């Protein structure tokens, strides 16, 4: 199911690309002591894991002026951006985010990857983080851990897309440009909330969950959650082309669920999905100062274009532009956000218009 989550919010469920030589990276951890969450809970040591590409460049005042923050989706981690459909388009020599030019930070958000999460030992006693907490932690990682006091670009996919809006409102002078990919800047409601609540309830209502103190994973709840996530992540065109027969679908599904059961933790998943519970940046979109290029795709189950929300909300952003990419053989549903070739021209435009 970790693969399912990564496909839903971080890449594409159906095609991850061929093996390739990953760009050179550096990994590290920064620990925030006595981190206080928005609901008043405190964690003595909050570990924030990160991966970087490139080298910081300092201006004549000694400040880093080439930093880029890229934020993953729910269930993902920073490594997802090293996959070929993203890295081989943007992180190559001469690419829009060439590490020879930029210092790129790929962090693992709270509750994800190698950062602190419930499965480290606290289980359901882990603080109930939300998106504001995650952005606050990212800010501390950048400013205190990596000594970055300004960002050339803030970019995020899915949950990271939503974090981009929170970043733009909370720290409006901290970045030159913002690029949210595959989300809406409004409260999680309608069908989007339905499948999230179904996922959470499936885990909590499994007797094996035992209030989060299970000794073995609550597989019935996880299976139901996996089923919802798969439906939410699919796009009809790609699914039909990739799995054109009943047997092809059944074979893939059996293997995928078995593999995911071997790696996923129910509390981690529950917390990841629940962290969106109080997200709603709509009232403060006018605080965003930086040029913003917002891109969704027409075949996104999570953010269906027929709602008309994006066209309405972008009007509140002084320097905001919304682009809807039509469904085609090149789009991948919600996962289009990680297929950089589809939207890289809009990134190029943003980097040009936001240059000083």
Summarize the structure.
With 356 residues, the protein is of the alpha/beta class.
Description of the molecule:
- 35% of the residues lie in helices and 15% in strands.
- Strand 5 (153-157), helix 4 and strand 6 form a beta-alpha-beta unit.
- The protein has a single domain (2-190, 274-353), classed as Rossmann fold, CATH 3.40.50.1820.
- An 8-stranded mixed β-sheet has the order 1-2-4-3-5-6-7-8, with helices on both faces.
- With 356 residues, it is α/β, with parallel strands linked by helices.
- The chain has 11 helices and 8 strands.
- Helix 1 packs parallel to helix 6, helix 5 runs antiparallel to helix 6 and helix 5 runs antiparallel to helix 9.
Q: Layout of SSEs?
A:
Elements: H1 2-9, E1 26-36, E2 42-53, E3 67-71, H2 84-90, E4 103-107, H3 131-145, E5 153-157, H4 159-170, E6 178-181, H5 190-204, H6 219-233, H7 236-242, H8 246-261, H9 266-274, E7 292-297, H10 309-313, E8 320-325, H11 340-353
Parallel strand pairs: 3-4, 3-5, 5-6, 6-7, 7-8
Antiparallel strand pairs: 1-2, 2-4
Rg from C-alpha positions? 19 Å
Count of helix runs: 11
> What is the domain total for the residues?
1
Structural shape:
globular
Largest sheet: 8 strands, mixed
- CATH architecture classification name: 3-Layer(aba) Sandwich
Content-based structural category:
alpha/beta
What's the CATH H-level superfamily name?
Answer: Alpha/Beta hydrolase fold, catalytic domain
List the keywords.
356 residues, alpha/beta, Rossmann fold, 8-stranded mixed β-sheet, 35% helix, 15% strand
């Amino acid at each position: 199911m970790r693969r399912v989550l990564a496909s839903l919010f971080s890449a594409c469920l159906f095609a991850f690309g061929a093996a390739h030589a990953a760009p050179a990276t550096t990994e590290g951890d920064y620990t925030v002591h006595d981190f206080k969450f928005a609901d008043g809970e405190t964690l003595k040591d909050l570990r924030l894991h990160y991966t970087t590409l490139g080298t910081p460049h300092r201006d004549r005042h000694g400040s880093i002026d080439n930093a880029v923050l890229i934020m993953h989706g729910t269930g993902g981690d920073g490594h997802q951006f090293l996959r070929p459909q993203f890295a081989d388009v943007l992180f190559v020599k001469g690419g829009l985010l060439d590490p020879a030019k930029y210092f790129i930070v790929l962090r693992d958000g709270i509750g994800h990857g190698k950062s602190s999460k419930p499965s480290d030992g606290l289980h359901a006693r882990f603080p109930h983080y939300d998106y504001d907490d995650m952005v606050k932690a990212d800010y501390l990682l950048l400013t205190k851990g990596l000594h970055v006091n300004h960002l050339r670009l803030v970019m995020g996919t899915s949950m990271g897309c939503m974090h981009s809006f929170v970043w733009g409102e909370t720290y409006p002078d901290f970045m030159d440009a913002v690029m949210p990919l595959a989300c809406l800047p409004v409260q999680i409601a309608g069908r989007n909330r339905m499948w999230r609540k179904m996922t959470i309830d499936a885990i909590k209502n499994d007797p094996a969950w035992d209030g989060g103190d299970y000794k073995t994973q609550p597989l019935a709840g996880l299976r139901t959650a996996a089923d919802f996530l798969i439906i939410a992540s699919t796009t009809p065109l790609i699914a039909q082309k990739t799995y054109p027969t009943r047997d092809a679908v059944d074979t893939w599904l059996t293997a995928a669920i078995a593999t995911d059961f071997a790696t996923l933790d129910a509390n981690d998943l529950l917390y990841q999905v629940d962290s969106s519970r109080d997200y709603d940046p709509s009232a403060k979109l006018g605080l965003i100062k930086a040029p913003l290029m917002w891109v969704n795709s027409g075949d996104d189950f999570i953010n269906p274009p027929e709602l008309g929300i994006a066209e309405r909300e972008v009007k509140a952003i002084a320097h905001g532009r919304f682009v809807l990419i039509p469904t085609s053989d090149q789009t991948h549903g919600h996962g289009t956000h990680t297929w950089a070739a589809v939207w890289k021209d809009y990134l190029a435009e943003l980097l040009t218009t936001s240059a000083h």
